[in-house]
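Q: I'm building a small set of examples for a reading group on sequence design. Run inverse folding on the following structure and report the sequence directly after it, with nothing in between.
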């Protein structure tokens, strides 16, 4: 098992189970501390090369994942890995797509879908999940 995130680190969300996931924007410099061991990057184009394992989910800015089944699989893999690895979820700005994905992870972790956006806004960023269709996506996630 690798050293996990510190719950007080910038961008780290503690899920109800205690799992820690770091959200961030790729347009900003990475926060101080260790690199992730796995990242889920939510971008409309191929992510930058990094030294850790990356899964790319094609997701245009302000919209929803291009391939819904792939998104569900990516969220499940990310949630499973978060139990034993330093997992990072990131998009360009770290709010809309990242917040939406974090809310889906919260649903996988047991937060009712209707409360997941509020949970992420309270524990990650009050600006998370930016668009009405992203909020609806989370509300329907897991059904």
């Amino acid at each position: 098992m690798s050293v996990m995130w510190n719950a007080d680190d910038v961008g780290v969300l503690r899920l109800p189970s205690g799992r820690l996931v770091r959200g961030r924007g790729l347009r900003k410099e990475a926060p101080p501390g260790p690199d992730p061991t796995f990242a889920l990057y939510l971008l409309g184009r191929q992510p930058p090369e990094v030294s850790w394992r990356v899964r790319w989910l094609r997701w245009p800015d302000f919209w929803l994942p291009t391939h819904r089944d792939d998104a569900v699989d990516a969220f499940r893999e990310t949630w499973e890995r978060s139990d034993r690895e330093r997992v990072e979820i990131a998009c360009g700005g770290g709010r809309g797509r990242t917040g939406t994905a974090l809310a889906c992870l919260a649903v996988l972790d047991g937060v009712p879908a209707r409360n997941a956006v509020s949970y992420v806004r309270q524990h990650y960023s009050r600006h998370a999940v930016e668009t009405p269709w992203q909020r609806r996506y989370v509300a329907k996630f897991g059904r």
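The mean pLDDT is 94.
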